[in-house]
Amino acid sequence: MTLKIAKWLFLLLIVSLPLVRPFNFVIFGLQVPYTDFIFLAVFAVWFFAVIRGDTKFKFDKLYIFIGLYGFTLTISTIFSIQPQKSFFKLLGEFYLFALAVLTLNLVQDKAFYKQIVIAWLIGTSLTILATISGFALFYLGYKTQADNYFLSHFGSLPAGNYPRIHALFANANMMCNFLNVSLLLAILAEKLNWLKKFWVRILQIGIWLAAIFTFSAGLGGMVLSLGIWYWALFKAKQKHLYSKIALAFAIIFALLVFGTTLISPDTNNTTREFSVPLTDKKLEASVRVLVWENSLENFKNFPYFGKGTGTDAALLRYETLSGDKQILLDAHNNWLNVLGQTGLFGLFAFILLNAFLITRCRFGLKESNEHNLIHLALSCAFVGAFLYQGLSGSFEDARHLWILFGLLVGISNTSKNDALEASKVP
Question: ω into residue 163 within 30 of 0, thus cis?
Fold first, then answer.
């Protein structure tokens, strides 16, 4: 009974993932959603279930790599230039680790994956409804963040008569990252008939609508994930031409989108502009390129243990195309952000964790069964949301991605167990 309660509470936590604003408070500069407290209830009930013997703690190699990464974060906290801030951020990091560990332990049976997917898509539906609300309010005349709660600032995009929406997320890029995972889970739900086709198609349309109005580079990750999915499906059906077309289109689109993050129309932020051939227009390195360079310069001052866990990896003053003056403190890249905060030791541990997770991905379909399709969908989501989107944004601390890590390793372990059981059959 206690295990069942823990699972229901965990599903509630999954539904609440997109509910960041206004359901949060700030402590030492860190935004903490109230829904994080659901985790405390889940963990307490699950731990009680382990003590009672209702379930067993599952050991896994993942813990070694999380432990190594956690160790480097702890060392970085000790040598931090802002010890108090780093300490509270370190607690948040261990919360993320616990999310992955708890997820891995709760998905020891494949049946729970279906419930998790449905809970995730319920949360996604809330995001879609918030997006539609923001879109409708915008065209009803509520065109500023002051009177339309769902609107995001334009960021490095040019100002215009269009809504950029972040719904209930802290920013539009994080919302797009979440929707990258949601898209693959919605496609999985349709493929396995977990939801009625009509409703899941409506949901997919809503996901794309919401993602497009984030105007985020993460759209490249969504198309890349989708392309890998269809590449694998067509390949399994021996439709090699369709398979190659799907993958080639996805890769080209993802590269083009990433390319747009590297350049910007000419501004006053840098003198390194260049002329576009056959036109009188000038372009320059984008704000992302500038902040990457800035984070690398800052890294040189703290090469081994970084500035400290949770500290600012960059410090760049930038005037956007819309005229807003910004101070960018984030490296806008998973690996550069880790490098700036935790130095070479932290980056090495983080890369090892990444490499381990990559080994748990599977893109081949020997059989188009439920288990293999779940594994494929999670692998595609990992590539698009974490590996690709991590190139132009810092998502290493996204709650939904650490849950994705646990799901991915869990289904990978189930693969091994199934193979072991199959080998025992005479």
Answer: no
Tell me which amino acid residue 238 is.
Answer: Q
Q: Is the dihedral of CA 403, 405, 407, 410 positive or negative?
A: negative
Cα 392 to Cα 171, 188, 209, 213: the distances in Å are 14, 27, 21, 18
The string of pLDDT tens digits covering residues 324-367 is 888 999 999 999 999 999 999 999 999 999 999 999 999 988 88
| Token reading at 399 | 């709650």
- Integer Cα distance of 56 and 105 in angstroms: 8
d(CA 96, CA 322): 35
200: which 2 tokens?
A: 């899941």
CA 397, CA 412: separation in Å to the nearest integer?
Answer: 22
Q: Contact, 92 vs 31, CB < 8 A?
A: no
Q: How far from 276 is each of 282, 284, 340, 372, CA to CA, in Å? A: 6, 10, 34, 47
Nearest 10 degrees: Cα torsion 223, 226, 227, 232:
170
CB 209 within 8 A of CB 133: no
Residues 6+ apart with CB under 8 A from 95: 36, 39
Q: Taking the alpha carbons of 398, 93, 4, 382 in that order, is the dihedral positive or negative?
A: positive
Token digits of residue 226:
């989708």
Q: CA nearest 110: which of 171, 22, 188?
A: 188
pLDDT > 90? residue 24: no
Contacts of 122 (CB under 8 A, 6+ apart): 15
CB 94 within 8 A of CB 70: yes
pLDDT at 416 over 80: no
pLDDT digits over 305-328, tens only?
999 999 999 999 988 877 788 899
CA-based nearest residue to 148, from 131, 162, 134: 134
Tell me the average pLDDT of the chain: 92
DSSP structural state of residue 151: B
Is residue 213 very low, low, confident or very high in pLDDT (cuts 50, 70, 90)? very high
Rounded to whole angstroms, how far apart are CA atoms 29 and 310?
10
Q: Quick: pLDDT tens for 57-115.
A: 999 999 999 999 999 999 999 999 999 999 999 999 999 999 999 999 999 888 899 99
Phi/psi at 318 (nearest 5 deg)?
Answer: -145, 135
